[in-house]
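Input record (one chain):
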Amino acid sequence: MSISKKSPQNTYQFVFLTWTMVTFFSFLLSLIWIEIGEPPDLKIIQGMIGGTIIGSFQALILSRFFPHAWLWILATLIPWGLMGGSQFGVMGWFVPRTELIMIRLQTGLILGGITGVWLGLWQWWVLKPILSNSYLWIIFNGISWSLGLALGWVIGGILLLKTNLFLGEVIGLAIAWLLIGLQTGIGLGYLLRMEN
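The corresponding structure, as predicted from the sequence alone:
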């Protein structure tokens, strides 16, 4: 298998912009079916729904470059479903129970990193036959989730403290997904550019 040959600069810009937007808006769309909650509230079904929505929209972007992009949907919904069925939880749709900003930061860095590596491992299997340096996706994903989730949880906590409205937490998670989409878009664009 090989990727479509495009101009490296055009590929990078396309992936960076569309991946970021699609990841962010698919998270917002997922809120129709998934209510943001705390770890025990979200189960396997919510994980699979969220993973399917995110994976489907991301697969649309990947279909421009990869012949079997539909596999990305499976490589996204399965790990999210498994997280939902475990004690770990559906990390992208829940908020911490504490209002302590430093705890949110530290926990977000650790749990975000674990989430990113877990998702990255599953998605790597799809990228492996296509991209020669696909292992870097696991690293990009781990860093992106670590930083994105930590910052989102911190911003959500600050907004909650300032307004006493749970909406602050939702805004924090939306910012987390925007940052994750931005960083993974940069990483994916870089991997595609390396192939040209």
